[in-house]
Queue: 4 jobs
Job 1
Amino acid sequence: MTSLHPLEGLVVADWALAHGLARDEAAAELRAGPRRHGAARGRLVLALADRGATPPWETWLRYVALRLGLPRPRTQFEVDTHAGRFYVDLAWPEHRVLAEFDGRLKYRDGAFGAGYDAEQALFDEKVREDAVTERLGVRPLRFVARDARDPDGVADRLLARFPPDVRRASRIDPLLPLPPRHRPIPYGSSGSGRQSGLPT
């Protein structure tokens, strides 16, 4: 993790935690290893890792928020609604802020096997979002892959949803540089079996 861009390291760390990595053991290995450039950043990335955000684009969105100095979001935030139980990618319930990454893949017929109906998926997503909005009184902010071209714009949209005291307190973390624009993330190399790189 010390040799990767912090975003790439966070993608790998998120995946590793979700697949059984013990954070304390990994932190001990970092402390016991030789002093090297990037060690402080590696420790920070490990501390920020979250087992609830394994898809790379969700990690990307969380990274932008963390870089701003916003409070750590809750991942896969559970919401019980009249239409069932749903999960929101990122949530700051104490500030009434929700954010989601919306991938195009799920809106393609056959994307998840024969018989997968993209039109039904679009309808189901509308039902889900409306139910979450009705239950919590706030509609999630949505982001897509093309937003990676303007991470500062994403940051501005996120920050605007927070109350003034949170906005005033936010500070860019110098250990977390801007995300690379459309740079592949080594997700497949982490052992997930998925294709490397961010989806479109």
Job 2
Amino acid sequence: MKIKIFLISLAILFVSCATKKKQTISVVKLMESTTSWNGDPLPQYPSGTPKVTVLKITIPPKTQLKKHYHPVINSGIIVKGKLTVIDLNNNELELKTGDVIVELVNKIHYGINKGHTTVEIIVFYAGTTDLPITILEQ
């Protein structure tokens, strides 16, 4: 009797799997750009041994990052929260969950979490082994 119940269950599972819709792979381009967020053209990639770095950056509510710059091309996606990015010319970019940014290269800027929730951003840096990805303003 147990074998019969098992075989019936197996047949039902097989039929339900066979009749399920076939799932397809989806690709969505989130960003493609030759300029940073303020319109500056991106520089040439540096020469040297390539190094890719991926960071998850968490910014608490009501927090301002220190002024800094990146000597390498980088891009990020806001996973959670809202972030304001400001350059030294007071250009501002407001980002929310799902937004993608191509960051400034060799230009001082900073970010502010003005909100009441934590910001999470995943950032991808395309650099070389001999270059830092971030340099704090002196």
Job 3
Amino acid sequence: MDAREQDEQVVASELARYDRELRRYRRMRSRIEADFARRLEAAGFKYFHVSARVKSRESFERKVRRAPDREVRDILGVRVIANFEGDLPAMEQVVREALIVDDDSWVDKAELLPIDAFGYRSVQFVGRVPEPGQEGLPTGSIRTVAPGATPDEAGGSEGAHELPQVEVQLRTALSDTWSELEHDLRYKSARQLPREVDRLFALSAALLEQADDNLDQIRRQVEEARTAGPTASDGGGERGYIGRFIQYDGDSRTLDQVVTAALDVPFGVVTGAGRELRSVVRAAGWLHYEALADGFAEFSELGRRLAIACATTTNGILLTDAEPQRPARSFRGIGVYWTALAAALVADAGIRESRVPDGRLAEYRVVATYLYEHPDASALEVRRRYGAAAAPVGTMDDADFPPIRLD
């Protein structure tokens, strides 16, 4: 069999696979679109749009014929569109939680552009979609079917552990509009376009990139203007500089994820978390952006260990006794919260305006001091000891909890 015949056999096999899986992909399209939107709303995002599509048979065939030896991984595609570029990194983390992501597939198209060029900007990656009831399926049990494999070679037509794939694209609304128009006007053109058209495309891309930056700045300054007070130290107000830090600092976002994963609770919006966060940041003495950045760098490891040792997963804000009637949720900035709390506690600073009772804060101070003085102590072991000595949940009006010992 020559190479041409082999390619035709692969095309035929892949088309048969497409026909066999089409109904499942169409059914999944609505489910994953709704799931992504629900997760983003729960995480507090307001300005976004999610759309999913199933690649047409004609488009699928063209892609297979272009590269018969390469698996087509975007039969199902989901596009997540944000109004603000600054939201994209955190939105990516939210949607990744719904998938089993192939990290080798991750690409930021903007990084592929030369430093002095403007053009297509989008983050893309491929993940597998767990079927209902298979959310806990280990990654190692997922099998990949090579292009052209027969149903027998794939392990049966049902593909017992073969999870369907989805390509996710995240971009801003302006980038999405530009890419759609460029694709239709440039790449679908049957003739070579004049050089002037290329220059206009590049100029438009540069203007849209600047517009995305402007929108982020506009939103940031509007939010700062809403919350600025007479004691604002950086021109934006307390809430402004704290909000900027937890949104744009990569280490802060990473610590949010680490704490959330360690406590095994869902990520979402927690009413009152912002007020609680501001109270401990002020108590730590971090009254402007630079002080917050420096303090976070110094105490973030202690904050992580304190969260693991003390955070409850039975109450709403992960603060013992604060909201016992609400389910536990993590929130954006939880890493900064426990870091600032740890810094304030070891400095023996007074923490005002907190919903955590004084007696509970006194317990936290013992734990924070112990962890600070014993950097090699296991946070999980300290959690066990603290849990055995802590006052019962529900005694929030009692500010005279008996002292605890961890040694």
Job 4
Amino acid sequence: MHVETHGPVGAPPVLLLHGGGVAGWMWEPVRERLARDHRVIVPDLPGHGRSADETYHSHARTTEALTKILHDAGGRVRVAGFSLGAQLTVLLAAHRPDLVERVVVVSAQAKPVAATGFTLGLLGATAGLARQRWFAKLQAKQLFIPDPLLDDYIRTSATISKQTLLAAVGENLRFTPPPAWSRFPGQALILAGGRERALMLESAGLLHEALPGSDLEIVADCGHGIPLQRPAWFAGRLAT
């Protein structure tokens, strides 16, 4: 897995996990603010960006690889994840609380959806569209990708394999928080955009209810893209 690290050596470590279909570059507006006072660790998850040659297989396998990154960081780490990365953040908090100090879970689906077979079949049949620039530009608008990062998104879309796409989306659609999530002893902030689909708002509520002491915040003017829509605000919430 490709990993980049920014910020002063010895500063408090923060691990940023991107969503499906993008890569570590999505954190650039947040990273440039955090790296002044934090050691910011930004991987490209398997099958994405500069890790495109490694197929995404499962959340479990990816979580194991991320655990090694946490070990190497030294001490307990703050972890923030968006969408697919938010599900991985929940798994890290649940299974390795000894390595995770605090989590920020952004727009994590936490309720399985029905008819996943149909959805994945349709996705597989149309997977080639992601390599078309016109289609990628339409998707970028839906994901709130800012203009300076548009070329990064188009390049990432063109290199994601059908196998990675189906595996990552399948894991996302079937995800439920593990029982150990309810026992995470660290701080947890759960975020969702007020303009997101009802399923995402319900999922945020489920994650909050499952973890006593967690904080839930609905960001009224945002959709499924809080870190890209409000990077300065998000960096501040993560740093405090």
